[in-house]
Amino acid sequence: MAGKEGHSRQNKLKYIAGFLMLALTSACSEGVVSADMTVLPAEGWPIKRVVQHAFDVQDTTQTYDLELIVRHRQDYPYSNLLLVTQWLTPDGATQTDSLALDVADAQGRWLGKGKGASITTKWLIKENQPLEAGKHVLRIRHVMRQLGALEGLDPLPAVDAVGYTLFNNTDEKEANH
What we know:
The protein is α+β, with helices and mostly antiparallel strands. The chain has a single domain (2-176), classed as Sandwich (Jelly Rolls), CATH 2.60.120. The chain contains 2 helices and 8 strands; from the N terminus they run αββββββββα. A hairpin with a 5-residue loop joins strand 4 and strand 5. It is globular.
């Protein structure tokens, strides 16, 4: 029982740290429309776990940029991250993308920023997108596999959180981001 309580406390602390990091990042960025992070289990990202974020868009006169955010630990054993995203729009359409994202360069240096055990990497995955008004849903799942394996990694180790930031596509955002 004490092990489960400690594990639960660790997850709560990760959630609070992630929320604070996101809040500080968002507070410094102009044009943020919506942002959220989902903290994953300490064991890693289960292959069947689809991270889902919903957000509302009101202003259809703007275009938007979507940034994907992943927080991983120093012991993440890969130089890339393979994801599938689905964007569900208010009219019922679904746009699916397969993403091959680098997290380290050819020398093994992390591309993201961070100190200590945690690295946060951001990728601009949608740029200058016109959006219709209403509720949008972003779904993210990993499709990582060992070389030559058919089955996906379950769980994907050392990934702590996955999230997004949706920006108004404005000149102010570009200057401050």
